[in-house]
Amino acid sequence: MMALMPIPPAARMRVAALLALLCAPGFAAGQNWDGRRITAIHFEPSLQPLPDTQLFALLPLKQGDTYTSADIRRAIQRLYATGEYTDIAVDASADGQGVLLRFITTQATFVGEVGVRGAAEPPGDGQLETASRLELGTRFVSQQVQQAVENMQDALRRNGLYKAAIEPVRTPHPLTQQMDIDFDIDSGKRARFDGIQVTGNPQRTVAEIIHSSGWRWPWNGPWRTVTDARVQSGVDSIRGWYQKKDRLLAHVTLTRLDFHPETNRVTPTLDINAGPLVRVNVSGARISQGRLRSMLPIYQERAVDEDLLIEGSNSLVEYMQSHGYFDARARYTTHTDRSGEEEITYEVERGGRHKFVLLKISGNRYFTTATIRERMYLEPARFIRYPRGRYSREYVERDLDAIRDLYRSNGFRDVQVTGKTVDNYGGKPDHLAVFINIEEGPQWFVSRLILNGVSPEDAPRIRPLLHCTEGQPFSELNVASDRDAILDYYYNNGYQNARFDYVARANPTEANHMEVTFNVTPGERRFVRRVIVMGLDRTNPDLVDSRITLRPGDPISAAQMNESQRRLYDLGIFSKVQTALQNPDGDEPSKYVLYDVEEAHKYSMNVGFGATIGRIGGGTTDLNSPAGTTGFAPRVSLGVSRINVLGLANTVSVQTLLSTFEQRGLLSYLAPQIFGRQNLDLQFTGLYEYTRDVRTFTARRYEASVQLSQHFTRALTLAYRLAFRRSYIIGTPLISPELLPLLSQPVRVGAVSTSIIYDRRENPIDPHRGIYNTVDLALASPALGSQTGYGRITARNATYHPIGRNLVFARQTQFGDLERYSGLITIPLAERFFSGGADSERGFPDYQAGPRDPKTGFPIGGTAYFFDTEELRFPLIGDNIGGVLFHDMGNVYTNLGALSLRYHQNNLQDFDYAVQTGGFGIRYRTPIGPIRLDLAFSPNSPRFFGYHGTYEQLLFGTGTPELQRISRFQFHFSLGQTF
């Protein structure tokens, strides 16, 4: 009996073309048209997916040609190859002495926008859309809808929505051959658990298993609703209980979920076999149970087999080597007693404890030792971070391979790298050294590069992208890089089927040189027929169109498609942007480029909690602690945003902050990329602030501003602002009564300003190299309604320099100056500079630098400041804890003319000198930036006269002056690097 073999797709196409030809009316009548002249060619229907020029260019026959059956077959095959048709028939009829051809076609349909509406979360609309498995731009078949419904029903049932109803709605678009499919979901009520059925031998009561699952609220509370995540976490929790009880071979399986429609309840059935106890012992080393559970794979895999036990031995060896026992060995034995309990014993032979003291690399001439060390994992002993060094035999082999790869990628095809470990180095039995010897061998170069298949127009654009050019080192890595560069070039210029291969031969006339030939087959070029955007509801289509760079007639470019996708995401108004080609496998000359977007929710909310720790707080009538007292201030923030206002990607947001010393409300309206300009952002802001973080006074401020930001490059940004604000001093400032009329009056300010920001840091959160500069210029003018006229400049320059592999030297200079030219006779308190603290001079508590009131000792701010900071950043312990040695210098000054860098304070009324601070900091690396603690010591912190007494005593001059001083020891705790 002969088995039926499946017919490949290409063969099916040929069979279909032949059947279409044989079934055409002319052939059915037995008419032979071969040799006749073709008088006309028509397509039915007249509206075809491809333009007439492209359509007729595909045909191997034209009007006036001689009719042949072979040409008809090729024509049908070419039309099928486009992927635009599901059926093609040819009708040939007499037309005088010639023949009239009619191609009768049925067009293919492709998946367009897939929408899901009304689904409860979980699984939610997005997960159900993914579950449908309908891929944008692919061929649409009606059976896919029913399969999609079944897939979504399965996802809904897994999440307890057993009574959900799904209604698919198809919307065809004949002009673009798309089929949009919308699924309307009526989720129904989510089912709840109602108990557990247990089979097997759990060796626990059902009540205990229910408690472990978390499927019921504690203390026999109500049953929880069913979700897929809750079911899986419940099973994992039950399995985890057995693992904690040393039953590593416990078997916990969810065999079924029984749904009871009359009660809308679900009963899980679990097959549980507790299995034997598995005891794990370690002899020869002291390792905690917690460490063992995290280290041994039998705990992670919840299984016991030979491979996992061997892997556990290797893990123990690596652990011991990381603690200096470089000769450690481990083996295991197993034993099962009569009760079935299994005992696994790891016997560790620690050997002597060593210290990896020396790593010596020799023989390298082409690369410096520092360059090689950057790629190595071995680390000799270093105080604190690696007290015993970082060494293992596995690390040695890994580093040797890394050095070989480095040389081979630079043309050293015959490089030999060997390593030797020496015990008892320097005559000390516990010292160990590693010597690595490199025999570089000859370096191979490219003597000639031949580009076959590259047109003269493309060659000048491709050659600058290549590494394997004449005179450059030859390596397979460079060839692979060039292959990617060439294919990317062609893919991004419409050649979707480009291919690449190469041949490299040794040059017979020149030693250590290769002749390299790149063979490129570009294939047919494909163009954009049209760009189709789907999913827009609230968004202005022109806004989206301006972010898409591809236009009809352009070569299809994957890079431009992805760049446009990124630019749409950058608007911040889409939760999903999917891009694809319609009919991606079709062989037509032009294709539709599709963008399917999903608009994000209009409203979003953020809530934050935090605290400030330092010299803060204190009452506004307490004169006894002008430098503040150590305290704790909790902070709560709440924000609400409405995105995509007017469909233009604009955002309205309200942000609030509440703490024991500050209350703030901020209303903003952001219009990004205005006037269709990608580099222009416009923002309107309204601010209310009530603060007493400067302990001298409490202020209330109202401010309105408008800002235009212009992004010239990724690094350079300019901002232009117009601001109006009104500041009030609340209550009585803690300053001398005679200064009150000058410093505490309300002030109205109208100012224009501009900021220049130049940021070349490689990582703004934790930079290791680069530069960061800012300059802000402001002018407050009576012409803008300002009661005080002044000019203000603030500037900052920060640089970051890596030193070797592990050190970073960072420095920052800050400068500011206020110059009054009209209006009030002095700058009021609310407009002065207050500084000092974690981000400027760490020898001060926050906002405590600069001039002070001569009687009360409270800071009154200044009109100039200068700070200079240097930090040496280095790893401290492991890879996540780092240290910082820092030096801060500077102060807030009475005015620019008083700025001085002298060390000594002349008298108790002199604050115009540079306070010097040194200290040590700890940085703990986290995904959101380093957490930092800085401990600072200032040998020349300011002394001043404070006041012992009440404010009423100050008014009548009956209090007592008191000599005080800013504490020479300060600490600062915060998030992020200092700068």
Describe it:
With 979 residues, this protein is of the alpha+beta class. It has eight domains: 9-107, Roll (Ubiquitin-like (UB roll)); 110-186, Roll (Ubiquitin-like (UB roll)), CATH 3.10.20; 192-273, Ubiquitin-like (UB roll) (Roll), CATH 3.10.20.310; 278-349, Ubiquitin-like (UB roll) (Roll); 355-439, Roll (Ubiquitin-like (UB roll)); 445-521, membrane protein fhac (Ubiquitin-like (UB roll), Roll); 527-600, Ubiquitin-like (UB roll), CATH 3.10.20.310; 605-975, Beta Barrel (Porin). It contains 19 helices and 40 strands. It has a 16-stranded antiparallel beta sheet, with no helix packed on it. Strands 7, 8, 9 and 10 form a four-stranded mixed beta sheet that branches. Helix 1 (9-23) crosses helix 4 (69-81). The longest helix is centred in the first third of the chain and has 17 residues, at 228-244. The termini are far apart. The relative contact order is 0.05. Residues 1-30 and 617-621 have low confidence and may be disordered.
